[in-house]
Amino acid sequence: MGLVTATAARDTSSNPFAQIRGYGALVRSGFRRYATYRQATVAGAATNTVFGFLRCYVMLAVAAGAGGVAAGYRGDQLATYVWFGQGLLAVVLLWGWSDLADRIRTGEVATDLLRPIHPVALYLATDLGRAGYATLFRLLPPVLVGLLVFDFYLPGRPGTWPLFALATLLAVVICFACRFLVNATAYWLLDIRGVTVAWALGSSVLGGLYFPLRFLPAPVAAALYLGTPFPSIIQIPLDVLVERDPAPVQVGLVGVQAVWAAVLLGACQVVQRRAERRLVIQGG
Amino acid sequence: MASVLTPYRHLLRGQVRAQTAYRASFVVNLVSNVWATVADVLTVLVLFRVTTSLAGFSLAEALVMVGLSACGFALADLAAGNIERLRHYVRTGLLDALLVRPLRALPQLLLMDIGLQRLSRVGVGAAVLVAALVAAPVEWTPARLALAVLAPLAGALFFSAIFVAGATVAFWWVESGELANSLTYGGKDLTAYPMTIYGPAFRRVFGFGLGFAFVGYYPALALLGRPDPLGLPGWVGWVSPAVAAPAVGAAALLWRVGIRHYRSTGS
């Protein structure tokens, strides 16, 4: 196989409407693809629900032991935190995405490089469709179950819901970019299981899934929020939702997310370009 | 006897060679598996930063439960954890290839996917248990020492049974996804905390109905010499390792029914 680079195939029409239509089709196809995995959706939502119960009981015990307020979260805020967190981890798809790595290992990625769309944009568009599906069928069911059993804190400020929606969208983009980078290590390593496990742990512990990061000493929490992308994936949207901080801080946290989204998407572009230069299609 | 086991030994050796082929990745695997248990322990430590007691249990006492749970789970995960790949074998039809060999299907599956990279996690689990037992106020007797060794081993059997039982779901429901995780990984989390924190209905179903209460909580009470706030008599902690027996029996039965029900993918 000769020289295959994404740039070699980049011959798009300059018509912006055609491009938008193309991305729209990709988003829809992502939605439809995951909509066909109906049994997996039911199984996933059921699993998140069981974990919701587990984590919620632990957090309520912590709040009770701390005299009602644990690190600035009341019991009902922690309940909301846990249950939305269980749904959110499916929306951002924290674990279990190896599409790109599989295609690199098998050499199928060559097909992606021949398409007239940049690979990062291609995968991001389908992932947004997937996230839309997950919001309806993976986020809402566990949250409704939790709402029936536990006392939830519901946002009181009018701006919180739209801000939470924006924070969730940014979280999807950030998580996608991280997954893309993790998968792209396959260009160099081929077997990425180790990297995947490291990512799964880093993202869940440092992302706020095991415990809210405010439980840590304040300087450590601040360093994580600003210095790593992990809190931007789960912790920040949930902090926004349960109104842990005053409104200006709420907005500032979403700003942190926006910076991370831009930085990571840029990193994806750079990594993709370097990978294409050294890519040897397996078995070619 | 040796000739009966030879093919299994070859399977195991093949796995060892295959899994260590990408050496750098294997090392990363070993290290990241340590982190899974470290993360569980870290979580408990962090929770105790904001509270001094969890449903009346101190940090050291809670860590005894974490240690029992982590140790038993890590051993089971090493031996039987990868049985969760069964649904992949059912979907692709690979299971047929196993069934036509003159060997038992379950041992083949366990050996084919043995999780060597989880060896490191067993070490960490044992270290956590020992450290917690040293830190906690345990009045040592020969019986307590025996229980401290027996309880994690029984826990390993119990969790292995859960792994196998969870995987058999794939015989009926191929796309069951991570549903089994709620009992395996969820069970690990469930057993790591005192049963008193859970709601009554939840505790009745998962703690007593499925038996998870007898893996971490009740042995820990017996080791610590504490009465049960839920009102069960003191001897329950001493006999709780026996819970592994019905669990293994039930898993074996489920497996047998499942594999008889299996009709290949038909493609």
Structural class of chain B: mainly alpha
Describe the largest sheet of chain A.
Answer: 2 strands, antiparallel
Report the radius of gyration of chain B as a whole number of Å. 20 Å
What is the 3D shape of chain B? Answer: globular
| N→C terminal distance of chain A | 6 Å
Large-scale geometry of chain A: globular
Q: Indicate how many domains the architecture of chain B comprises.
A: 1
State the secondary-structure class of chain A.
Answer: mainly alpha
Largest sheet of chain B: none
Order of helices and strands of chain A: HHHEEHHHHHHHHHH
Low-confidence segments of chain B, given as residue ranges, are none
- Arithmetic mean of pLDDT of chain B: 89
Q: What is the average per-residue confidence, as pLDDT of chain A, rounded to a whole number?
A: 89
* Greatest interface and its participating residue counts: A-B, 43 and 42 residues
Helix content of chain A: over 70%
The total beta strand count of chain B reads: 0
- Summed up, the helix count of chain B is 13
Count of individual beta strands of chain A: 2
Radius of gyration of chain A, CA atoms, in whole angstroms: 20 Å
Number of helices in the DSSP assignment of chain A = 13
Into which percentage range does the β-strand content of chain A fall? under 5%
